Amino acid sequence: MTDLTSLKYTAEHEWIAVDGDVATVGITDYAAEKLGDVVFVELPSVGSTVAASTVVGEIESTKSVGELYAPLDGEVVEVNDAVVADPSLVNSDPYGDGWLVKISVDAAALDGLLDREAYVALTGGDE
């Protein structure tokens, strides 16, 4: 299981795990639960440049359509094709096999992101 306290978060309900200069991004279990059963995921292309707070993809569920925002500036270095093929991974394993994109970033850019405690407070205390 992923150590949720080691991750960074956004107010748009994305989580970020950083390894060197690569940030793995997914949506939180809170967001996955609010969306309901995810049936379609659209992700940016590998090699595309993304800017923080801009829409870079789409997550559709049986209830609604949600937008995926880039949490940081950078270049997409990998996308999770398994999630595109089986969108239910976003619901079943949001912090593991349900990751969405990997972005090459400047680690200093993480300073503005939320820690676990701040994210839990943002969501009303729901873990």
TrEMBL record:
Q: Which cofactor does it need?
A: (R)-lipoate
Tell me if Transcription regulation is a UniProt keyword of this record: no
- Tell me the superkingdom of the source: Bacteria
Q: The Lipoyl-binding domain covers which part of the protein? A: 22-104
Statement: the UniProt record of this protein carries the keyword Cell wall biogenesis/degradation: no
Could you list the residue ranges that cross the membrane? none
InterPro entries found in the cross-reference section:
2-oxoA_DH_lipoyl-BS (IPR003016), Biotin_lipoyl (IPR000089), GCV_H (IPR002930), GCV_H/Fam206 (IPR033753), GCV_H_sub (IPR017453), Single_hybrid_motif (IPR011053)
Question: What keywords would UniProt list here?
Answer: Lipoyl
Where are the N6-lipoyllysine modifications?
A: K63
Manner of cofactor binding, per the entry note:
Binds 1 lipoyl cofactor covalently.
Return the similarity comment: Belongs to the GcvH family.
What this chain does, per the record? The glycine cleavage system catalyzes the degradation of glycine. The H protein shuttles the methylamine group of glycine from the P protein to the T protein.
| Quaternary data | The glycine cleavage system is composed of four proteins: P, T, L and H.
Protein name per its UniProtKB record = Glycine cleavage system H protein
Query: What is the source species?
Result: Microbacterium aoyamense
UniProt lineage: Bacteria, Bacillati, Actinomycetota, Actinomycetes, Micrococcales
